[in-house]
Structure formats: C-alpha cells, structure tokens
C-alpha cells in the first residue's frame, strides 16, 4: 500500500465517521415525516415526480399494495437487465462488439443484481458492454440498495406504529 493509498483510505474513513451521524439524523427525519434542510430544494422535484407518475402522496398503502408494488418494480428491473444483456450486441456503447449474453447467465445476472447479491459468473469487462454495465448493472446496484432502505424504513414505521398501540 502506497502513502497515497493510505491517505486516501484515511480521508475516506474520516469522511465516513463525520457524515454518519448527520446522515442518520437526516434519514430518521425523512422516515418519520419531519422537515429537513433539503425539503426546500427536494420537495418540488418530489411533487413533480409524483404528479408525472400519477401517485397520490397523501394516500397510504396497505402492506399488500406495498408488497405488490415492490414485487412489480423488481420484476421490471429483472426484465430490463435481462433484455439489455440479450440485446447488447445491437445496442450502442459496445466498442468491443460483445454479442448477447447466454439467456441462463443473463437471467442469473439480472436476478442477482436486482436482489443485491451481485454475484457475477462472468468476466465483467470481457462480457458486458459499456451500456449494459452502466444502464443495467450500475443502476440496479443503486436501486436494489434503495429498495432495501425503503423496505427497512417501512418495516420500522410499521413496527413503531404497532408498538405504540400496545
């Protein structure tokens, strides 16, 4: 490990420790519906996204609707990642001219990235085009973690509401 690597690691760890408490407080406020410093900037974008998607933000979802919506969202992610792998030979950002990924491997990879296991049974740079890596795999890396946070937040709120009535 070079001195530059060590400095970079230490800076990362310091930044992680410094931001842990403020980010935790921010996420707590978001999940409990309290106002945050970012509301002024983010609420207009959130309202626009809700309007474009036809979502009524005031309507509460029951657990069945929430679970169904979550399953459909993840199923669409699997289909998108699967199709992008099968069609990558015909799509742009493929300077190496990679062909389609075999269907069984494409399905395995799609399910793996959507479920946040990210298990790879292939050589990334020798199998996936740039478009597949950035539009499918990288996006799913974010979405699978965001889905986990959303489910965790919802479970925490359900637990809190259930326990407050005990």
From TrEMBL:
Keywords: Cell membrane, Ion transport, Membrane, Potassium, Potassium transport, Transmembrane, Transmembrane helix, Transport
Database matches in Pfam families: KdpA
Transmembrane segments: 6-28, 66-87
GO cellular component: plasma membrane
Source organism, top-level taxon: Bacteria
Molecular function via GO: P-type potassium transmembrane transporter activity
PANTHER family: POTASSIUM-TRANSPORTING ATPASE A CHAIN (PTHR30607), POTASSIUM-TRANSPORTING ATPASE POTASSIUM-BINDING SUBUNIT (PTHR30607:SF2)
Name of the protein: Potassium-transporting ATPase subunit KdpA
UniProt organism field: Pelotomaculum isophthalicicum JI
Upper taxonomic lineage: Bacteria, Bacillati, Bacillota, Clostridia, Eubacteriales
